[in-house]
Amino acid sequence: MLSYIWLFPLLFIFHDMEEIIGFIPWLNHNQKFLRERYPKIIRQYEQTSSEGFALAVFEELLLCISLCLISLFTNWYGLWIGGFVGCTLHFLIHIVQSIVIRKYIPCFITSIIALPISVYVIY
């Protein structure tokens, strides 16, 4: 288990870097499409900035690292596996989102790469 524990924040960083770099430009580029097909969703992101999005990701990274440290120091890995399963489901959701809207979403490529690794680690 110790050999896998830091894979969680590594996969998280790998995946979320694609989101941080590409999400706001993608959102701006696809605003018309999203307003027509998904108006409720686009409203949630209207005031989102790259900085604000990066800060939210940073907070999630701190939580991820905290889960790893708590698991290491307490030798209780149920908390870690729960967080890792949640992250894996996050990857799967992004893949489904991209399929549903029939467009690339900035997080799709890293989700495709990280999902099989995550499933293997969980198994």
Strand content: under 5%
Measure the end-to-end span.
12 Å
How large is the radius of gyration? 16 Å
Give the overall silhouette.
Answer: elongated
- Number of DSSP strand runs: 0
Task: Estimate the mean pLDDT confidence.
Answer: 93
The tally of structural domains comes to 1
- Sketch the major β-sheet: none
- Percent helix range: over 70%
**Topology as H/E string?**
HHHHHH
Low-confidence stretches: none
Structural class label: mainly alpha
Secondary structure tally, helices: 6
Polypeptide structure, described:
- There is one protein chain.
- It contains six helices and no strands.
- With 123 residues, the chain is mainly α.
- It has one domain (7-122).
- The termini are close together.
- The mean pLDDT is 93.
Short description, anyone?
The protein has 123 residues and is mostly helical.
Tags for this entry?
123 residues, mainly alpha
Secondary-structure topology with pairs:
Blueprint lengths: L6 H23 L1 H7 L1 H6 L5 H25 L3 H24 L6 H15 L1
